Amino acid sequence: MSKTAASRAAARSPKRVERRSDLDTPMSNEVMEFLSSKPVGPDKFATILADKARQLLALDRYERRAQSRRKFAIRAFDAAGRR
After folding, report:
1. Three-class HEC string of 30-69
2. Could you tell me which residues come within 8 angstroms of residue 38 by beta carbon, excluding any fewer than 6 positions away?
3. Is 2 part of a structural domain of the chain?
């Protein structure tokens, strides 16, 4: 590969970004307090409701699919009985 072809190929390839973890970087007390805190009072209640709402939505999707499968099975059973 020629020098110009190699430089063009290098220009097209995505640059690799190096990430460095500075574990010695101090965080402010406010950030540390936020990261270590747990919701209390109305915030805790809202967190619990949000989690339960997600679970109920998943259950609702499951129930709708199950009802649809039962409906099609009943139709197929009725159609087979008429033959």
Report:
1. HHHHHHHCCCCCHHHHHHHHHHHHHHHHHHHHHHHHHHHH
2. 44
3. no
Provide the whole-model pTM: 0.44
Asked if the structure places residue 17 within a domain, the reply is: no
Segment 2-41, tens digit of pLDDT: 667 666 666 666 555 555 556 666 778 888 887 788 888 8
Count other C-beta atoms under 10 Å from residue 2's C-beta.
7
- Per the structure, the count of domains in the chain is 1
In angstroms, how far is CA 28 from the centroid of its own chain?
29
Which structural domain range is residue 62 located in? Answer: 39-83
